[in-house]
Structures are given as C-alpha cells and as structure tokens.
Design brief:
InterPro entries: NTF2-like_dom_sf (IPR032710), SnoaL-like (IPR037401). It comes from Pseudofrancisella aestuarii. The chain is an alpha+beta fold. 34% of the residues lie in helices and 42% in strands. It contains four helices and seven strands. Strands 1, 2, 3, 4, 5, 6 and 7 form a seven-stranded mixed beta sheet that branches. It is globular, with a radius of gyration of 17 Å.
C-alpha cells in the first residue's frame, strides 16, 4: 500500500471517530429536546440517504422522516443523556470508502425519572460519499442498563455474539 494511501487511511479513521462523536452529541441534544426537528437535522447532517439505526429492540429507518419520528418518540421520557465512546476500533476497506466502527458506549442518562447507566456495544457502518464520511447504519448490538440505586454491580449475561468474544 502506498504511503499516500496509508496516510489517507489514518486520516479516515480519525474522521470516522469524529463523525460518531458528533452523532453522540446529536443524540444528547435530541434526547434532551425530544424534538422531531432536531432529530431530522441529526439525520440529514450525518446519515446516508438510506441510512438507518438498528437496535436489539428494532430498526428505525431508513429515511429522515422515519428516524426522526422514532428518535423523538423514544426521547419523550428522557431528561438528558451523555454519550461517551470508549475502546474505539475502526476498520476501513481497501478502497477507503466503507468503514466499520466499533466501540463501547457508556451513557449516564436520566430516563423515566431515574438515574441510569447504559452500557452499549456499538457496531456501525459508515460510507464515504463524495469525499465525506456518513453513517449508513448506526448499530447497537448489545445493551445493558443499571439503575443508580443498586448497592452493587449486577452480573451481566455473557453475549457470545459480542465483539468481546468474536475479535480477541
């Protein structure tokens, strides 16, 4: 691989991480405002035209209208949330136009009047279109939550399909 292509790959990896970090800030805003307009702007700013969100509980999209309605409805019982992405890994294909992003999301969230910690495994797909990285699939493959009233950390079930077990 040429030096130029290697440098471009490194720049793309950092750009993909920044796109997902921006998505996290958009989620924080949308979950605080429960605004369909904010959710629509989030989608139009960062997603491919046929982009979607996929969760263990279902799929939102594709399309700005569907995703924005679902996100606004989901956010109705959320006062605030702060998305943090850790253990980030980015794989970019040889032609430098498709990326798989993987991270653990740690989200303190005030939902249904309760302080809650969410631990989420993110596996998203991004496409480079006209030189710009966009989210094609924002994917959540595993999800755990913990109420702040717990006196000790509970055991979490092992998910054999999780990245933790597939990639080490």
């Amino acid at each position: 691989m040429s030096l130029e292509k290697r440098i471009q790959r490194l720049e793309d990896i950092e750009t993909v991480k920044k796109v997902i970090a921006t998505a996290g800030r958009w989620f924080d805003r949308c979950e605080m405002t429960a605004s369909k307009e904010d959710a629509s702007n989030f989608y139009k700013t960062l997603f491919t035209k046929d982009g979607f969100m996929e969760f263990p509980f279902g799929k939102w999209g594709p399309g700005a209208e569907t995703v924005s309605e679902e996100l606004a409805a989901f956010s109705q019982n959320i006062d605030w949330a702060l998305h943090h992405y850790t253990n980030q890994e980015v794989e970019i294909n040889e032609s430098l136009d498709k990326a798989i992003y993987h991270a653990i999301e740690i989200i303190p969230i005030n939902i249904d009047g309760a302080a809650t910690w969410m631990f989420v495994e993110n596996e998203s797909e991004l496409h480079k279109i006209d030189g710009k990285w966009r989210i094609h699939k924002y994917g959540i493959v595993d999800f755990k939550s913990l109420q702040n009233t717990a006196t000790c950390w509970p055991k979490f079930d092992k998910n054999e399909n999780s990245w933790l077990f597939k990639k080490l």
